[in-house]
Amino acid sequence: MFLDDDLTRVREVGEMKFTPGGLLSFNRFMHLFVIITRHSKEQFIKEQRKVREKRHRAFRLKCWKEYNVCIQHEIDMEKIKYLDVINYVLKEFEIPDGTYRSSFVKYQMRRDKDMQMRDARKLILQEVEDKELEEIEFNEEMVDKKKCIKILGFYEARKLDVLSILSNPFTH
Fold this sequence. Notes:
The protein is mainly alpha-helical. Helices cover 80% and strands 0% of the residues.
């Protein structure tokens, strides 16, 4: 799916609704949250493919300095892609940046809403990662596929921890 197609579908649902305090209504927020999460992850994966060979080469040669640079680039790229998608979506709907971020923080503080956000993020990331894993060719001589998937899952979980801290530093 393309980002603009998803945004068109959200527009068809109706205008953005705000709470009396100026935050996005939870339903509208979740629409945007799902779109932003899915498309930022998809764009990050496309960028990650570009540097995969360089990262693998550095790992095979045990050139840890170069490997560290590759990993740091991936982390930075994921943050940039996330912010790019957020800015694009907010601009399309003419929503002030502070409104989305305030809504994000507010809904994270309410346990029921936070659980829904976590479940949605988990489902979206699983869907995107499953799609990505189907496209990866595994070298069985190095690591078997199940172990590799487990390693990738751990790696992704750590990156999500970093991104959540960056997106909301006040709770950490």
